Amino acid sequence: MKKLKKFLSRIGILAMVLSYFVGVAPVGASGVTVTVSPTSSSSSPQSVTVQWSRSVATSYTTGTTITISIASPSVNTSTFSVSSTSAIDLDQNGLPDTLFTSTSTGSQVNISFTVSTTTSANTVFAIPISFTFGATPANYAFSVFTSNPVDFGSALLYTNGGNQVNVTANVPASLSFVIRNAADTADTNSCALGTLSVGSVSSCSYRLRIATNAMSGFSASIVANHDFATGSATMTNIGAGGSFTAGTEAYGIQTLTGATTGGRSASGVFTQPVVEATPFNADASQVPISTPQTFISYVDSSFNAGTSPSLTSTSLVTHAAAINAGTPAGNYSQTITYTVTASF
After folding, report:
1. CATH at residue 41
2. Among 22, 154, 166, 190, whose Cα sits 20 to 30 Å from the Cα of 276?
3. Across-strand partners of 157?
4. In angstroms, what is the C-alpha Rg of the chain?
5. Taking the CA of residue 268 as centre, how many other CA atoms within 13 Å lie in the half-sphere pointing to its CB?
6. Domain check: are 155 and 56 in the same one?
7. What's the whole-number average pLDDT of the chain?
């Protein structure tokens, strides 16, 4: 009998506890999907519409309190404020459903509405708000809470790019130029034609290795300090597009073989050739004196000659000379200057 009394006593206590929780628990509490329109803005004040719909087919009864809290977690958020009309047709049925009762300003705004007319069920509820904010990027949470029945949800309004990250980087400008031997295995600043004879044509070659990350590539010009001469005698310059023949006096550039790779293509592959300028794109050409002339160029994008010896990404220049029996003796020379200009 004592055991039965203890059991009944425990049942009574449990019933009291359960009745307590039933009394304090919200009936029909429901998380709702809240949206704000627009979702982002850089114009203040901004007209914002807060919308949500019930997940069950019940309405908001007269006297229901609707609270919209607006806040931002940003410590740099400027003071902001909101305002709304005194009467709002919450469910868009042509009748004013809520009365706007209060606003506050500062780091958080709480707006309260009291439902004056029972709303229709299964509708999208909308509240227009005039929202004023500062110029600092910030994200504002619009949170909805209703009292009868209980609904709650939240959505964000992004202002002045508060949800954006500006990623930056700096790519240093680069430009390099070196004169290399014909095999592109070593640097050189000489081109020796050797001892000339009537019975042959002498030649010497070197390569121009140019690279730049300039957006519009580069241009290289050529000029000589004077004709190919001894100081008292001058060798005859080759005619444009001419040919060197043993026994016929002539000096100049015999051939220019521009780089066939190295230019950056539209797809980012360095496979494009340089452009050989006129008249150097002919079989033979005179070295210009006093006035520089464009020699080679690549102006579509950057140019990459690579780091390893290359016979395709470097440009080959070949000089030649031929003499006849009457060519004056002496040590002939000429200094050629190349100037490379990048177009960033």
Report:
1. 2.60.40
2. 190
3. 140
4. 43
5. 0
6. yes
7. 86
